[in-house]
Amino acid sequence: MIKVTLPDGSVREFAQGATAMDVAKSISDGLARNVLSAKVNGEVRDASRPLPGDCTLSLLTWNDAEGKSTFWHSSAHLLAEAIEALYPGTKFGIGPPIENGFYYDIDLGEKTIGDGDFAAIEAKMKELASKKSAFERKAVSKADAVAYFTEKGDEYKLELIDGLNDGEITFYTQGSFTDLCRGPHIPDTSFIKAVKVMSVAGAYWRGDEKRKQLTRLYGITFPKQKELDEHLTLLEEAKKRDHRKLGKEMDLFTFSERVGAGLPLWLPKGAALRERLINFMKEAQEKAGYVQVATPHIGSKALYETSGHWEKYGKDSFQPISTPQEGELFMLKPMNCPHHCEIFASRPRSYKDLPLRLAEFGTVYRYEQSGELHGLARVRGFTQDDAHLFCRPDQVKEEFLKVIDLVLLVLRALGFEKFEAQVSLRDKLDRSKYIGSDENWQKAEQAIIDAAAECGMKTVVEYGEAAFYGPKLDFMVKDALGRRWQLGTIQVDYNLPERFQLEYVGSDNARHRPVMIHRAPFGSLERFIALIIEHTAGRFPLWLTPEQAIILPISDKFVDAAKQAQSQLAAMGIRCELDERSEKIGRKIRDAELAKSPFMLILGEKEVESGTLSVREHGAGDAGAMTVVAFARLIQERIEMQLGQATAA
RNA sequence: GCCUUUGUAGCUCAGGGGUAGAGCACUUCCUUGGUAAGGAAGAGGUCCCGGGUUCAAUUCCCGGCAAAGGCUCCA
Predict the structure, then answer these.
(1) Which of A73, A219, A422, A587 has its CA 20 to 30 Å from the CA of residue A317?
(2) Active site residue A337
(3) Which of A261, A235, A233, A252 lies closest to A530, judged by CA?
(4) What's the pLDDT tens digit per position in A124-172?
């Protein structure tokens, strides 16, 4: 008998050779029908494999990320089986699961696959899935594996086998298709009910552009048709919310070939929105003890030699700017920190001055690869909501906590509810690639872990992901569609204070090196605005939105009254437009709704007589008549509620 | 940076070796209307840029630039 410990801590006994599936069946048939794979002593395995002995076991279903991965990995095999049936002679590269579905890289020889072929592939996959073919695992010797793929003529698989050790090679077979695969897989193909081939793209074999380009087929599958439908609806919604499309429609920003790729031009409405974000952040930072500084867009090349950026990124940056002086070189700044270090160093600092929090909405320039440019999310010139905190080592944790508070405050004000933090620490084994004393690292790492825990954020710890100069914490938010976006980071830095020889005089009257913390809650304003456009589908929070209301006169006769109301509202700080076209009210309402104006203020004879405006709320309809003052108060109350909730939380 | 696709009016797009079209937007006129599209007329284009083939190129070919998707990268 073997003892199996389940996630709830209970222990059950099973006969030697029992499988995870047997365990599932002993719990309930319903569970057994949903088990995709199993985590045995921390390792994900086939549910159909005999358990190795006493073990801890969790059964993985569609509700587990690892269960989904298994499902999609098996789906990749199903895709391959369908391709082999439809396109005999195809050679196969790799076919892994990804965040949303899976892909398979294939070599079709002379043939090509286009969008038009997807339906046939999907049909074949469904046909094969319904055969309920089991995924059968078989350990093979290296020689046998080589023999199999040599006969099949698949050089890609042979290359993969070449990198594996004899004794650790397994094949999986379902139906007529056999693949080199570590597994694990779902019990059989019938779990796969809904199938969609999403797209086709080129991808180099092993990601190496010098090697052959294969055809990559992306697909996604689900256990239920309904889930596929929902997924496709979500994708459509994401397309509708694309910030590049909405940004154009809403006149927020544009690009010009003549200005250059990746260099956004902010239109008046977008620039004003940016300004509101900046002011909001400035205010929050002032309350948190930051001081604003301002530094130029360029700096001498020597500055970046000191910081080390020249050595590491110099050749991939915008190249130095020369001057009439022979040998004089300046760089467009790729970061604000070197400038801020010089501000710190501009005079002697006492421990009493610390922490010194220097903030700047600094615009930086990085030569991103052309293929990487993407709307506002990835640009070559962008503005960071940057700040550098210079502090004593014993202040790191408190500063971290304060930064996290600030970030959460700001994100809540923008309507984000779901955050996660990723803490990046040193590699557990190899410590040679990090600079700074072991003692400082330990302190800083512990400080970050504690700070993240104390503020109650969901935290993932990643070892080996720290920068060479210090550990960091990255913020992730989930947007309204459940997509994860990485925002700004908080990073501890021992390197720059060293390189810039920064010092403060301690209470012991000796010189000490400060610790530097980089932090940018939004990361870049550009990327952040892209995120809020997509998160809100262009319906920004009232305090941020370009246009809070639009006045719609019933006819030309009321335009003068409308103008008066508009200037009254403007005097009370309300951003209000006026539709003075000679159109019918129905038309004006329709256009205002489509333009997503939060409030429509209808003004006709009735309203003029009673000194009111008829208020209509976007998406909600008629909200009754009220005076201009009452409406302004309504707006202000709404804004206070949105921002107040954030402050209180 | 690499691969594939795309680039025509402000926007969305059709067309095609003989210098160009639709819908929406815009302008003017008519209409002055009460909660999601009133009517008519008009204006608007280096068909991305440069070169080549051709009697003739926006159309075909080559090169650039830009965008989309993918690969690789990201202080």
Answers:
(1) A422
(2) yes
(3) A252
(4) 999 999 999 999 998 889 999 999 999 988 888 988 888 888 888 999 9
Cβ A553 vs Cβ A561: under 8 Å = yes
Q: Which nucleotide is nearest to A489 (CA to C1')?
A: B75
**Is the ipTM of this structure higher than 0.90?**
yes
Which positions on strand B lie below 7 Å from a protein C-beta? 1-4, 7, 11-12, 26, 29-38, 65-75
Name the CATH topology of A2-61.
Ubiquitin-like (UB roll) (3.10.20)
Catalytic residue among A68, A73, A137, A388: A388
- Closest to A361 measured CA to CA, from A249, A526, A544: A526
CATH 3.30.930.10 residue ranges of chain A are: 253-295+334-536
Helix (H) or strand (E) holding A517: strand A515-519
Token readout for A29 is 């048939």
Q: Is A386 a catalytic residue?
A: yes
Nucleotide nearest to A318 (CA to C1'): B75
Decide if A637 contacts A537 (C-beta within 8 A): no
* SS3 state of residue A352: helix
A615 contact partners, CB below 8 Å, separation of at least 6? A599, A600, A601, A602, A622, A623, A624, A625, A626, A631, A634
Q: Which nucleotide is nearest to A255 (CA to C1')?
A: B66
> Per the residue annotation, which of A274, A518, A588, A616 is the catalytic one?
A518
Is A388 annotated as catalytic? yes
CATH number of the domain at A66-235, please? 3.30.980.10
Pick the catalytic residue from A46, A107, A154, A386.
A386
Residue A384 known to be catalytic: yes
Q: Which residue lies nearest B69, CA-to-C1' measured? A: A201
- Is the pLDDT score of A9 beyond 90? no
3-state secondary structure of A224: coil
A253-295+334-536 fold:
BirA Bifunctional Protein; domain 2 (3.30.930)
Parts of chain A belonging to CATH 3.30.980.10: 66-235
A200-214, A298-312, A564-578, A586-600, range with the lowest pLDDT: A200-214
Rounded, the Å distance between the CA of A551 and C1' of B9 is 31
As a CATH number, domain A549-648 is 3.40.50.800
Q: Where are the alpha helices (DSSP H) in A117-213?
A: 118-129, 142-152, 155-162
Rounded Cα distance between A291 and A503, Å, is 19
For the question of residue A472 being annotated catalytic, the response is yes
Rounded-to-integer distance, Cα A296 and Cα A382, Å: 14
Q: Is A518 one of the catalytic residues?
A: yes
